[in-house]
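ok so I'm stuck.
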Amino acid sequence: MDSGSDATLREPPMAGNELDTLLGALERQRGYVAWKCGNLDSAGLRATLGPSSVSLGGLLKHMAAVEANMFSVRLHGRDPGPPWNTVDWDADPNWEWRSAAEDSPEQLVGLWQDAVGRSRILVAEAVADGGLDRLASFTWPDGRTPSMRRLLIDMIEEYARHVGHADLIRESVDGLVGEDP
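replied:
not stuck anymore, here's the structure
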């Protein structure tokens, strides 16, 4: 894949370079979330499993927030944009999980799809400005500054954790199981 093109990898290449492998792995995780959260009504997106309050709608909204934080705020040092920049995260740290029950399926899917689209643009900008070695615009409390490579790995890990949640919740909603749509 030409990283500057409009083509989006849907999975890692069999023998690709590091950038395409990381981006393909991220897109595969995004695809799983899209499939597990797709074609559900409000009740399906609000369903929880056992004592957990995690829902598929909350997961979509959470991942939209993580996309904005990871690539707008951390990578580029930019404002995350609405609705993220209007939330008092100190007063309501679980806002995205809690408020998702108030949103329609169309709002949740649209919010997540928009966040993913912005993230793709922001990652392409960073690729053009130093590639995987480009340093983020923030530092951890210990003074270290992660590279874009590290942020991509962290994002893949975040999606992979939640794909497991999505698998269990979706199966409980309508029996949908598996990895491929």
